[in-house]
């Protein structure tokens, strides 16, 4: 009975995301039906299509946001020059060549020349890609830590929490009305569990620490994988998202190679130090087999967190401007 309940719950969770498009469509249909407004024009009535009006307002909002951001930047520059104020290093990194608006199209030549893209690239390769490499090495990690019998449990933990992380990536859109953060801020928050997990593994190699760390890495990497497409679309344009996102995920094979080689070098070094020979059947046992790997992965994930935080600081202005204009246009609409 317990196995059947677990199977039924797993199937329900897997099927539930398929219902989300229907729920969203029903909600949009309801709003379209209720809020389609009739405005009096002379002696008759004029039916206003809400979707067309929203699209028109969105285009006007983006254009005005672009001009306003440009004017504001020019004003701030002139004011600083007039007052003799000098920008610090942090201000220069945050405000120099930052995005003026969301959704601006970036061709490949412009994409690879932007600091925002490389911050995003670093955050991804030092966050989601490390989690992927960790899952690929999870069986050998469990064997080295004496938890070979729990390999299936660990893989299930990683897969389950990766699934929940992907579901959580949709949460910012559902709680947007009550609590709004830039999507790059959610990316920064999602990167927090990864360094915690690796430093926990470096500090302790028992079964509980291994299970908690596996769950944290799965949750973080699942969120990043699912949210990355939306972030790429918002930062670098929806029309170019296919090409731009494929350029972004080139970090997965590159990072997998680098992190895999790093783990292999550390692993083999401890085998050779004990036996002075390495064969295909040689197995390294003990915490030292992956201790330096966990430390290096933890430090790299901190670098990814720092890159994501800087990306958030550089894009926060564009997100705030877009949200203000969106609320204003919705208020005028309804």
TrEMBL record:
This is NODULIN-LIKE PROTEIN. Keywords: Membrane, Signal, Transmembrane, Transmembrane helix. The keyword Membrane applies. The chain crosses the membrane at residues 151-168, 180-203, 215-236, 248-267, 294-313. GO terms for cellular component: membrane. The keyword NAD does not apply. PANTHER family: MAJOR FACILITATOR SUPERFAMILY PROTEIN, UNCHARACTERIZED NODULIN-LIKE PROTEIN.
